[in-house]
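Researcher: Next entry in the queue.
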Amino acid sequence: MDNPSESQLEQLLAQVLANPKYSSILPDLIKGIGSHELQKRGSFKEAVKETKTKLHQATGVYVDREINYDDWLTLLRNIPPDDPAEIKNACKQIMLQHISTRERIPGLDEFYQIIFNMVPAFSSILDIACGMNPLTIPWMGLSSQHFYRGWEVNIQMVKFLAEAVRKFDTPCSIEAVDIFSVNEIPQADLVFLFKTLPCLEQVQKGITPILFNRIQAKNMIITFPASSLSGKNKGMVHHYTEMMQRWLANSPWQAQSLLLLNELVYILEPRYDYTHYRPRTIGAPNPRDAKISEPRIMRGHDSRCRFI
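Model: Structure for this entry, 308 residues:
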């Protein structure tokens, strides 16, 4: 199909938004995917179907049940601000509804302690494609001197999270942002990409090296699932290790990795001496210079929290 007209894009957008599963997704993301699929597919019907498929891969894979944001807000609003333990309990109840954060709940007490001990002191976090991860802020040990920014494409989720994070002491900004079309990625000391890159690659193959060159940070923390959503080990650690090696080879980043609970975690730092987060011009990196360690295995509580 030739370059789609605006009317075709609007028609595709309307059909996708009519599906409750995608009714809260940023229209710009839908139109971006839809435009590509209209050019690629032989018919309008196929383009709509493939647009929905990619949206599911990018935004719906970790949601397996209906979400009632109003009930969750009521739950949080009824908790006194001076009861951090009850706030944590409520956040856990909500995170159980989202697969990605649900999988992290058993090790939350150790997860951030371990990874934050592996990076220098920081004051700002940018969490790209954050999902429900802002609800883990009470476990991060942040203070009122830190700043957390979360980006997400689900507008309803963003509205809920923007209200929910008011229960925390840390200044936060939760924003509806399409990472594929955003003009500028703000600087941050620490950037999170938790279980995100495989989903982004489903939408736009090759987006990861682009992000690696655009992100300006002191460190990045990137995670991948170590097993499938059904709990099966399908060689995913080896698969994602190879992918990261390719992505890092010609990037301005070097990494170390570890297996933490059920996630393959990469801690990235700039390969060059950054001034204001920008590399000095010292020539293109040689792929052979890419520094990446084999994953170290860490388990959670009851002997899960040690290198073996």
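Model: Strands lie at 124-127, 147-152, 172-176, 188-194, 217-225, 253-260, 263-270, 274-275, 278-279, 296-298.
Researcher: Noted, moving on.
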